[in-house]
Structures are given as C-alpha cells and as structure tokens.
C-alpha cells in the first residue's frame, strides 16, 4: 500500500513508503507520469547507499523513467526485523514493480547492487530487457581489492564524517577524486543493523554457475583504477555472460560513476538504446 507521495522539486522523484513481502521500503520514482516510451530503469544501489546518492544520475537519465529503493535499514527504509538474502530482495523488487504495474524494466546495479541486479535478472528474466553492471563481481569468486581500501571501507566514519571520506577518497575508491564532496553530502549513514544485514545477505553468494544461462544484453562497466573491485572481475563477468560487452573507464576508481559521469552515461545510453539485430 502506497503512502501519500512526499512533495518534491519538479525534477525530483515521487517518494513513497511501500510494503513488499512484509518489508517497508522507501521507494523513489522519476518521470513515471511523463508519458515516456522507453523502459524504466530499475536501479540497485551500492552497500549502505541511500537513494539520494544516485539522484544526480537518475535526474540525468531524463529520457526514461527510473525507479530505486532503499534497502532495509538504509536511508528512509526501517530496520529489517529478520535477515534477508538476494532471493528475498529480488522478490521484493519484483513485487514493487507489480504494485506500480511495471511489466518490463532495464536493470542496473553498482557494486553490491550489481550483484543484486544479476540475481534479479536470473530470478525474474521475464521482467528484464537489458542489464548494466557497474564496478561489481560474480560474488564470492571475485578477485579481491587493495587491502588498504578494504580496511577503510569497513570504517563507519566513511558514512558519518565527510572530512574522513574526502581525505581517504583516493585510497578507498581509486581514480579521480572529482565528485567526492558532493557524494559525501548526499549520504545518510545506514543503521548498524541495516549495514550488517546487507553484508550478511551476500555471504556465500555467487552468480557464476548461472550466468552462462542468462542471455540478456549486458554492459559491464569497470574502473581501471578501482581499488575495491579490480577490473579483472569485469573480465570474469564478460567470460560468463554470453551476450555481454565490457568497457573499462581507464583512470576511473570504484566511484567512476561520479568522477566520469558523462563517459559512463554515454556508454549506458548507447547500450540501453541499442536495437537488436
């Protein structure tokens, strides 16, 4: 059941609280009332990231509807009452689409959300048109990143202390620091339970045995200087996904969607707008 939409700016999203499988989730939808003909883009965010973090990207994808939601215990979604996994959250995403009468979507995920995007496409193939995977892996078979970056990533100060984030941005994410200040200003710290359950949801998870059977046109975007998800993981995904292409953002780090936004947008648009031969 939808709550009364939260008033937003003209270019902003319609934000509602929705219930799916007993979980209350904060959902944002851009441009669903503008008569656009392209498939909506369903977006899965990175770990601990609230919908405001992706808002600039959502607003720049002005040619298509865009939908995303905060995971339990993240942003405006209440803490989870029980643990969840990728299967359950993919089902919740699918139920949200049914509630909004959305039959087919393009799907995109970044980092942790890239794993969710893969799982959603495998679990609900009839609802997926095209797929975009950014700075992500096939799960537990990943090639790990720089230990210094991984250790700082585990420090909760990256969510609550903008100066810490800016100081360690290059170590954490690699590549250019363009966009660091704006990014930290949009982040709302997840709850401890929300962050822990997100980590727990993907322990032991892998898409590797199933990806060869997925035939969705897929764009894999990786940062050439990603300190958290080395680009070799993109090569692994490309090998596993038959109908896929890989683009490396040469000097991009883990957050190349911030530092190389225009280059990323161009690649994403070209992929999503491609016509099947």
Short key terms for the protein model shown above:
eight-stranded mixed sheet; Rossmann fold; AB_hydrolase; 17% strand; single chain; AB_hydrolase_fold; Poly(3-hydroxyalkanoic acid) depolymerase; 277 residues; AB_hydrolase_1; alpha/beta
User: How many helices in DSSP terms?
Assistant: 12
**Strand percentage, roughly?**
15-25%
Give the H and E element order. EEEHEHEHEHHHHHHEHEHH
| Rg estimate, integer Å | 17 Å
- The CATH topology label is Rossmann fold
Uncertain regions spanning at least 5 consecutive residues: 1-10
What is the name of the CATH architecture? Answer: 3-Layer(aba) Sandwich
Please list the strands of the largest sheet in the order they lie side by side. Answer: 1-2-4-3-5-6-7-8
Overall shape: globular
Largest sheet: 8 strands, mixed
Helix content: 25-40%
Mean model confidence by pLDDT: 87
Distance between the termini: 41 Å
What structural class results from the helix and strand content? Answer: alpha/beta
Count of separate structural domains: 1
The CATH class turns out to be Alpha Beta
